[in-house]
Each structure stands twice: as structure tokens, then as C-alpha cells.
Amino acid sequence: MAVEELMAGSALKLLAEDTDGLAILAAAVQDSLVKPADIKFDARSRTFGLEINRFQWERAGKRMPYFRSRAVLGIAAVESVRSRSVSRDVDAVHALIDIRFAPAAEPPGGAITLVFAGETQIELKVECIDVTLADLGPSWPTRHRPDHGKKRP
């Protein structure tokens, strides 16, 4: 199975092991917010993680209430990391827009790219797709639904 989804209350848990699963996981984290201090790479364990404030698209209607939850996005089997335009400002916030995979000449390896609003990107060379997402606690209401640059009235 490409994606396993376990619902415990409103907590979301996903595992992606192929490109179809990664596309589902990418949709679940679209418009998540992350501070640079919450981005970590552990070269020894070859893991990369982000603690994010995830917009809960699966619960979003056309009107409030909207919800966010604290979640962890984890990527295993990471061989190397490159980044572009990640802010060093501790108060900066990056909005995660997409997660993409480009296969290597030797499957199942390739590059997972985390695409953020603006010019920010993080590219991870991986042995395979092994990505998890888990909500950490209760959700909280938010008044704002991401609108991808459209002006609010």
C-alpha cells in the first residue's frame, strides 16, 4: 500500500513509500508553516525533519472554522541536503507549497524537493521514498484559509 492513513480523532498519520503516496502526503502538508529553527538534518541517522503548523485541508470547508495542527514531517534514507533561500532569521516563517520527487538513474533513489513560497527550496537526495507525516496534538482554530496570493477583501 502506497499510503497508510490512521485517524485517531482528528490526528492524521501518513506514510509514503512511492510517488503516488508522496503526492497524497504533499497535499496534506500544502500551506504548512515552518520556522528555520524547526528544520533539522541528522547526518548520522540520515533523517531530515520539519516541525510544521499544518493547515488541515481535509477539514476545510468554504467557510470557517478552519484548523491547524502541529505535525512532524520526517524523511528517512537521506544521503545529502541542499537548500536555497532558507532564511537565517529566527522569526522567519516559510510556507510549504509542494513536495516533488525526481527519480535517479538508479531506482528507487532520487531527489525529494520541498518547495516553499518564494524562491525557497530544500533538495534531499534519498535512497528511496520513505516519508512520514504525523499530527502531534490537538488542532486549533484559525481564521485564515490559505489563498495562494489572492488578496483578501
Q: Which structural traits does this protein have?
A:
disordered N terminus, 153 residues, five-stranded antiparallel β-sheet, mainly beta, 1 helix, 12 strands
SSE blueprint:
Layout: E1 3-5, E2 13-16, H1 19-29, E3 32-34, E4 39-42, E5 47-55, E6 66-75, E7 78-84, E8 94-103, E9 110-116, E10 121-126, E11 131-135, E12 140-142
Antiparallel strand pairs: 1-2, 2-11, 3-8, 4-5, 5-6, 6-11, 6-12, 7-10, 8-9, 9-10
Shape: globular
Q: Beta fraction of the residues?
A: over 45%
**Helix count from the secondary structure assignment:** 1
Number of E strands: 12
Reported for the largest beta sheet, the result is: 7 strands, antiparallel
| Overall average pLDDT | 90
How many separate domains make up the residues? 1
What string, H for helix and E for strand, traces the elements in order? EEHEEEEEEEEEE
Uncertain runs are 1-9
How much is the radius of gyration in Å? Answer: 15 Å
Helical coverage, percent range: under 10%
Overall structural class, as computed from helix and strand content, comes to mainly beta
Tell me the span between the first and last alpha carbons: 43 Å
